[in-house]
Amino acid sequence: MSRRLSRAAGAVALSCAALLAVPATAAADPAPVSDPLSQAVATLQGQGDSTALAAAEAISNSRTEVADPVDANPLAALETANRILTDAGITPFFYPTAAINCSATPGAPLGIVPGVAGGAAGPWPNLSIPTLPPLNAVEAGETMFAFVPAGIIDDSGDKAGMQVAWFNVNTLQGGFAEMGGATSELVDAILDNLDVLPVVKELARGPITEALAALPSAGARAVPVETGSGTVLAAVFGNVTHNTADGAKTCFFFPTVGLVNVA
Description:
Blueprint: H1 3-17, H2 34-45, H3 50-62, H4 72-87, E1 91-92, E2 97-99, E3 113-121, E4 143-149, E5 162-168, E6 173-178, E7 180-181, H5 182-193, H6 198-211, E8 221-225, E9 230-244, E10 247-262
Antiparallel strand pairs: 1-3, 2-3, 3-4, 4-8, 5-6, 5-9, 7-8, 9-10
């Protein structure tokens, strides 16, 4: 699929998902971010920047109630996923997300798999490894977006499907970015920013990967984005394909929206 078609499909998926709600008994209120975003959309409509406008409209259309599962097991799993983000210095989005009929383990009501997304402004994560300068996956003016589901056990065959729509309300720039496996995305981004000889980069790959061992090996996704400095709104959504006892299963995670202040 071409990048243009992927962006269009993402916008359509977000718009459709905004009309749906995950069945549950509790839901979070949408974040009060409509004023600056609505003003930006109105401005862009007169400028002809189709990519930024599509991203801004996709985020605006995503601000819907996404349920917070109330069963004890999904809630405990949700807390674990949320803690993974916060322990890594990533600010969680306004509310969690979920996929229905997705769990690889028995007992989850409706097969619900909860998930959380978040963002971290650069410089991040400032890893410290002996003999090397501070290591960052994103620098100033950049944002690392991450997604962590709880209940995905084996997705080793396919890391594609999740994406982020982002929009900088200060610069009126925006777009879409495809997420990949969290560990590989972070390691590659850190090595790209490391100003050393290629042979040293390869020697550093192992220690950097070990330093990121707290991230789940399955399900977690991430992508670095040159968002520019300012207030960045984002929506994370899409599919995760994983292996279950019934075979490979592709699950759609409803959009979750957040905000990152980028220096």
